[in-house]
Amino acid sequence: MATEAYSESWQELIDLAGQERQSAASGPMSLASAGGSGGSSGAASRSDLEHSDGPWTTAAGVAEALRTSTTTAKSRLTSTHTGVTAATEGLASSGVLKSVLTSWEDRLSSVRDECGSLAPKLRQVGKDLGERDTKVKSSLQGINTPSDPSDLSDLGEPKEK
User: Fold this and answer.
1) Most buried of 3, 43, 44, 132 (most Cβ within 10 A)?
2) Cβ distance 48 to 38 under 8 Å?
3) Distances in Å between the alpha carbon of 90 and those of 81, 87, 101?
4) 59 or 146: whose pLDDT is higher?
5) 151: helix, strand or coil
6) Cβ(77)–Cβ(65) below 8 Å
7) pTM for the whole thing?
8) Structural element, H or E, at residue 157
9) 3-state DSSP of 8-73
10) What is the pLDDT of residue 25?
């Protein structure tokens, strides 16, 4: 088999890929929710799969805050324009001002409605993912795995429940 010569930058990438493949083969991967630590220290490693509803709950809170602030902005915009039409009657800009107000009221209403719809959906995603983690953990309980990833001799017999 012929040895191929690569440029220095390509060779660095090839070497790096080989190192990653070796470290992936030597390090265990486990689901954090299934009780695996993924490392000898007991702390979660980069290869652990983890879920938290925190980001989903935070996003839902932001959507609710945005809904509230757009409601307030629309209310202030509308009240600020009260009486403007009567005060500018006869001016050409009166009609334009009213159409701009209506346009902004419609836009703010759309943002408010979308945020109101989005918040409960974001919370539901966090809940659904948490329930899925629980189901996966439960389904993994009956799988017998060797303590040494290179030893496959004791696979096949389910664990006692």
Assistant:
1) 44
2) yes
3) 17, 9, 18
4) 59
5) coil
6) no
7) 0.51
8) none
9) HHHHHHHHHHHHHHHHHHHCCCCEHHHCCCCCCCCCCCCCCECCCCHHHHHHHHHHHHHHHHHHHH
10) 52
